[in-house]
């Protein structure tokens, strides 16, 4: 996992296709209550063209759980597609920090999900994590 590219500065980052040779995974999750939560994502190639996507319902207790499960689902799809170089773009700055240092959050209520996602990130591939403003993430996933 390559974490050097993440930024949480106040300047907005405009969505761009992934770097040459990479695919990009954008995910988001939403939560209203235990029975009304879900997540989704899209995978695009270096030209910015849609390659795959998903929408899933979850039974979870928080928006953070929904966002993490959406990331896990997206990573599983990318792995099954045999994508070897991936940019993961998330709108949750706290999640990007959790994923860069999962050991610090193992005793957290989300520890199991964080461990699952960390294990996926540590497989034999290159995943770079980026932080993006939430408003832009919503726009990207709805278009």
Automatic annotation (TrEMBL):
GO MF terms held by the record: nucleic acid binding; RNA-DNA hybrid ribonuclease activity
Pfam families per UniProt: RVT_3
Name of the protein this chain belongs to: RNase H type-1 domain-containing protein
Gene3D superfamilies reported in the protein's UniProt record: Ribonuclease H-like superfamily/Ribonuclease H
Domain (RNase H type-1) ranges: 26-133
Protein species of origin: Chenopodium quinoa (Quinoa)
